[in-house]
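Morning!

This is the sequence you dropped in the shared folder:
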Amino acid sequence: MMDTLTDRMTRYLLKRLRRRAVLTLYERAGDAGLLTSAFIEGEERKGTIWKVTDQAWHLLTGNPDRDRATVARMMGVGRAPRQRADEPITFIVPDEDAVDGVVTFECRTVGASEDQPKGRRRKVQRVSTAGSRSAGTLDIDFPYVTALLREHLPPPNPVRAAVALLVARAVGASLPDIQTLIEALRPAAPFVLLKAPVPRFELCLGMMLEDGLLLPFRAALEDVLRDNPLSGRYRQQQSAVNRRKLKTLSGIAVENTDDQDIRKQFRQALLDDPAPILLADETRSALTPVVTETADLVLECGGIDYEMLAELLHVCCGTPPKQSLIAMDDMAFDPESLTLDDVALAVRPGRAVEQTLSVLAMLAERSAAEEEEEREGKDERGRKQRSGKGRASETTSQRNAGKKKPQDVGIEVIEPVTPPDSDAAAADAAGTPSQQDRLLSVETLAGYGPARDWALNLKADLLLWKQGKLRWDDMTTKLLLSGPPGTGKTIFARALCNTLEVPLLATSVARWLEPGYLGDVLTRMSASFIVATERAPSILFIDELDNIGRRQGAGSRNYDDYWASLINRMLELLDGASKTEGIIVVGATNLPERIDPALLRSGRLETHVQIPMPNLEALVGILGHHLGSDLHAVLASAPVAYARRRLRPPPPINGKPPVRHEPDYKPQAEKGRRHD
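The structure's back. Tokens below.
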């Protein structure tokens, strides 16, 4: 029977996976001392060659059973067995003469060469043995050693095998023959759309492209939308050496991007440096015609089904496909809801096929329930948005993903505390402790100086803006607070929230940096400003701003491109906030000198207030705020000041002892008491 295009692509991709696994095994053997590698570059050949080490030739005997145990021991430990310095390794060489079927061997010692001084040579012993290895089995060559090594080749990774099967299916279902694929990929910068509606397909595909598991080269991925890389990894510019550039897009990102922005980024990508473009799409719905109709090649397949699972189990576990299909028919579960994460959890070495399919059925049921809940959540949010309710409490990522809360993007939402009403004020006047005195507000703070004046001016301007008497761009809405730890920068932000009576959205650069990958960090930064926009008017408080650092020259520190990208995104967000009404940005730092000067220019965090440690007057005000109405009682209970008694008398003055002034104060217990 003639092979289909899907079969040909499946064999090719699985061979690439096996080739990579074999190279990884050779690298492990190199660490164990069995193989050694060398890079050659010539006119005819270029690449890495592998050879058997002298140590392996000395240790292996030519007996497959013994050598199999030796190789297993060395590969398990990760390095060759350790030898004493004074205990040389010996190896056996057959003699030319054989008498009566007895082969004579010569036992030689490692390191005994002919040009060594005569006194340092070791004696050569000749031994005779019968029934040992023949002269033909003593050639410890590369095929012999690698045959033993490949017995330790691990089974294929189920996630990588699943991605390879999905890609092969997409090619086979979309093209008539291999020649059509070759012709479509012949231009210098083809645009290919690869769609497989399986969650996590985009991420796994990007990682395999970078590792050289699908194409005959390692790819350096560059996102067209300048967003999170397809693989989710961040690589330095130096790591892109010896890699071919491949521009990529994510179907999820395209789905959430405006058509105008997509066209703009495509134009920029084609003009800057033409390179092949791959759009990997794992969404179930069709993307915008801007990409589906302009792609040079569209490769599309269905999701995970019974046939694919049977083939996957055959590749990874050796289970006959017919046996798997019969077992799945008996279980009758829907594999369409499975994700590649589910495949990694279920398909494990050593599991029986029944147990694997049972786990897959359980995961498919849970994934289907989660999809149903997400769909219902989207419908509910859609109804709220159409009715004008609930919009201010949701972010863009919430509406897209369905489950995220503001805390998931590193934001703490703090609502303002309003002053007590008139009834409460009357109760306070009747004698109950007043809470209004303890309400945290800028008016009740002490020791903030210019920061307090800025806040009170902003309060007056905000009232005029709400009345339509003042434009937002005429207001000063960005502030940088700096000072030693413990000077109350966070307290000021909370007080500002109560004074202005607007919500406070508290975040920090440390929270932005939690994901680690550049794309995820940039997404968190943007999400913070998006939440602030939707809750406007609001205060966005960014703590630990100095963690972003400064932009420096290329190569002056590790991951300099990473930090430069963060600062550039911060500049864009601050400029956007200046044009958006209702966003008040307050940054805080202990080390203002570490902040990039561009962040402090006009229109950004241009107002800089340094908060010193509180002086005596400020300390009095701070204590008064916290004590509230209890201040008078505390002052009344304070003891009367008296002179401090000296443990030793002061030195004499002009030879005369000083006059001691006893204090008039006496303890309460001594007053009116008579001493006998």
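Headline: Residues 306-387 form one domain.

More detail when I'm at my desk.
O.
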